[in-house]
User: Fold these one by one.
Assistant:
Number 1:
Amino acid sequence: MKHTINIEERLLHFKQPAGTSRGVYTERRIWLVRVTDGSAVGIGECAPLPDLSCDALPARIYNNVLRRFCDVVEQTGAIPYDDLRPYPSMLFGLETALLSLECRVKSDEFASAPLVTDETAVANSKLYTLNSTLFARGEEGIPINGLVWMGTYDEMAARIEEKLRQGFRCIKLKIGAIDFDRELDLLRRIRERFGPREVELRVDANGAFRFDDGDALYKLELLSQYALHSIEQPIKAGQWANMAELCRDAPLPIALDEELIGINNPEQKRQLLNIIKPAYIVLKPSLHGGMAGCREWISIARDMGIGSWMTSALESNIGLNAIAQLCADVYGPNITMPQGLGTGLLFTDNIPMPLEIRGDKLWISTHS
């Protein structure tokens, strides 16, 4: 089947500055890829994160590389998966666009429809959905964590209260930005009111702790007082032996996140997990190999008894929808593990889609 692919570079703007370990984001650059076959359209999102993604190239170079892969798909009708392993955000966008196109072509409602170019019509049409899942049919929501971004003590305390009022039963705090004792105090304040069966607590250190002077293990011991579900990436990525030691000795479960970036070969994935032996891995398709790469990570981890969950990486609603559909498919019906899928509401100029958060779950509305 002959495909035509167009690329649109777009700049999204945050409603509020988003604080991360790599600085504060006020805007977000993405690339939308639209695949058409003359009668239907599919859309996907390529969203590399500066200073983090292994394919975070300067905008002009990124666009040229993406164009080259789009040309291959146009000529062959297939995604060159092996060639795209080093470019996970591009792979994710192309996977989503082609699956979106396939869904529209297979749908009787859209099979003979004219080419859709208006953005609102595209957003409300049959974007990538797996109709076999309860989530896609609007019958089940996906549980998500309430994410508390880095900020001052007072800002983070206020955000925690807001998440609790909204009904979140899993709160995730990004730590490492303020005094560690103050961060412990935030956790203590939650635990004084809610036990671990009432509110699950996760923290993400983004590599903020030091290993060499015992800093990391000491801080993990202090954190363990608050019955945490897990901590993500306590030390910087690339220290496999040190991370393995922490996973062995730490009094709370450790999840890998940044550690997985750039590990694209299946044998490398097995080697990393076999050496470090984490309790969990946290998967972001834009960072960790697209949909195919995440499925690969999950399969290898399951064989080793390692758990996993998925998280969005500041994508628009296009990417968020695709990750949610993937979650519903990979983890099956009645998902109980909270996923990190709430970031689609961060932008003032997001792409409208029938996604909404009700309580502590992400839902897709089939009536939008």
Note: Confidence is low (pLDDT under 50) at residues 107-126.
Number 2:
Amino acid sequence: MDQRGAYYNTKEQVRWLGDLLRKLPSLDAPVPQPTKRPKPSRAKRLDEEQVQQLVEGYQAGATVYELGDQFGISRQTAAEILKRHGVQVRRQGLTLEQIDEAVRLYEAGWSLAGIGGRMSVDPTTVLHRLRERGVQIRDTHGRER
């Protein structure tokens, strides 16, 4: 009867432990410094004067993107502030002529992102307008679905 069992041939286990030891850093290697990460900041809150300036700027024609940059907030936050103060937010979207051009470009092989970039709108906006026009949308590889 063999009492050594599974541990009789230890060559494989020794090789595995040797590989593991080679992966470990040497004892005289310098200790790596912890990575410095910026602490999360608190959300910026605008005071009443800044909110009034934001509303007036929007009503004077500035975009929510421009106002967000000016006040150090996101465009979504700027739009929320305008909404809370009863300001009707302008929708840029695409004109009928732009939609016609988007259809033509898409059928010529342009991507949604390319058309959106050319017309300064989100590619999803282009997708929605094309679908409204009944355009057959390609898959991500340019094939018909």
Note: The radius of gyration is 30 Å.
Number 3:
Amino acid sequence: MVKSKKSESGKTDCKKINMALQGGGAHGAFTWGVLDEFLKQDGLDFEGISATSAGSMNAVVMAHGLIAGGNDAARQALEDFWHKVSEAGSVFSPVAPNAFSSSFVSPFSAMADMFSAWQGEWNEGRNNAAHFINLMSQNISPYQFNPFNINPLLDILKDMVDFKKIRTNKDVQLFITATNVQTGDARIFKTEELTADMVMASAALPNVFRAVKVDGDYFWDGGFVGNPSLWPLFYEVDSNDVLIVHVNPLVRNEIPKEAPEIENRLNEVTFNASLLKELRAISFVQKLLSHDMIKEEYKSKYRDVLIHAIRAEDAMSELDLSSKFDTSWPFLKQLRDQGQQAAKDWLKNNYDAIGKKSTIDITRDYLEPRTKSKETK
């Protein structure tokens, strides 16, 4: 593993932890903040990172920085990446009015024509943009509004990340999830094979990007089948601690009634479903192990992993669907700052538990009903 500064200085008390990074478009800047704060810790190393979509972007950019120059270089790489995303988004983001101005030209002309009907409503709030995005996805596919398949994120990744060095470095273990369009199965792209196209496949939302071809198969965003996939962090790494960094709220007490609100909640439920399924399986195995219900000859096949989580309800519950496309620099920095604070709080309360015990109860925190009873009108 690429060592932290404390490890490099010769101390042997360095803790190791595996990260599971959710996807969520621009909301991935929250995860940037979490990673930035963790990279400041002298006695903490990342062993494995499983990620999806925006989480995958964070993972490969951070890994590149760690390989190139350690923790400080990784922090700088993450900041540079998100700054480039913001610059590109000022032209291509569907919630940036200037991206669809009358002076903007093809390949997004179809989107521009459609968006012009919404220009008069823009100042009423970003919910209109969310409704536009939903309407657009139902009427115009990315094969139509982007005939040249322009994707600025791909250019940023190719410019910033040395994938050859990532593939040849044995210490940074990455597991990037994408969804096979034709079979519906999850595909986990691993460190030794990783390319920019594989990362883009993990982030290919079907209503925004074309399916990405890798090894003869076509892939969409990995969030449909693993957001993120946890199982590689049980079987392919040595350390037992897994920290899930959420960017999609699990719980909302309010019932969505407006079309953009319904679309937003549907998106959250869909992209949390696979994670909850894996957590339910982990809980089941933990119960079997704790009650000694597994035959001795099979016990070696199971691990009692330690699960931790940084939840995002406080930061994300007030944000709508369109904010996932908002790449303005002030907004990204706001999310980064919130991620940093969430990481500081988590480290203060849970650092000593790393390597010793889980800091969440899966049944209590994820599987039991968690809403507050509230009469809706």
Note: The radius of gyration is 21 Å.
Number 4:
Amino acid sequence: MDFFLSGIMAITWQQCVMYAVGILLIYLAIRHGFEPSLLLPMGFGAILVNLPFSGVLNQTLEGLSEETPGIIQWLYEVGIDASEALPILLFIGIGAMIDFGPLLSNPKMFLFGAAAQFGIFFTISVAVLLGFSIPDAASAGIIGAADGPTAILVSKILHSNYVGPIAVAAYSYMALVPIVQPFAIKLVTTKKERMIRMDYNPKSVTKSTRIMFPIIVTVVAGLVAPASVALVGFLMFGNLIRECGVLNSLSETAQNDLANLITLLLGITISFSMKAEDFVKVETILIMALGLVAFVMDSIGGVLFAKLLNIFFRKNKINPMVGAAGISAFPMSARVIQKMGLKEDPSNHLLMHAISANVSGQIGSVIAGGAIIKIVSDILEKMPK
């Protein structure tokens, strides 16, 4: 009887909190369809890693001198800790999904991929003022990009103490784009601004341009922000597979089978960082709150930049809502902007403009991640030991 009760007696209140967090994530995935391929495995993994004496974690059993490997800890150590392989490989699938045609036919939308990263740097400053270390502050800020793989990679490379909360926040806020973004946009726009109409007259984009684009972006990003090469390079490699025209079956595999499998594994693997003793802290709540601030400020930054441009370009005004689509949550953010536009004016279609800003945000977020890694690494090197 003692054998069966030992596990129950070993449960702590912090572990009970994590069971509740896991169940909440599973509920959001199933009941509301919020990023189910990620939130469901993360939620289930949060329960697994917090079971007393859990077999999914490495442990030394009584009477044995050697450590018995646990599957989730092994996946974490191999796929994230040692090489960051899982989040990077996911970018191949993401790149294969993206059609850069609308962006290439309307290049000015590149600006919003940069403007909508404002919240990242704003939040880093706030986090430092609140007493967080520079690596933790930078990792909290990158949540604002609404790009889970980039958030995981940055927090891991910078050795943040909050990899788990950052991953949960990044993916949760990605899932909550339809709720958070309309709130942020309405804070800084008027109904009249949200009704601005934008004509869509796309220029034809040649196949050569589509093929050269991922190559050029990789080279430029590698020269400007070398630390972003792994992220940008694999994203653009996936897009090159899509656009080359001779690897159609591999492109479909990358978009579906590879992306889904890596997403599933990444979700349950990151739960290793959701152990109760590391997760249930006041600092965790602050990190997740800062991530929400970053996300909201990213959206607001894109909107305000669009309003600034409208001061100088009065003839062909930009609907400010399009600026908010410059975050990395593709294609959810673009769909939100389209729905908001139709709500204000049923004949105003903003989807293709929002898509252009949204795919630009994919590039902007990974370059911002690489830039943050480089900047923070340089700062830490110059600080006295």
Note: The first helix runs from residue 2 to 9.
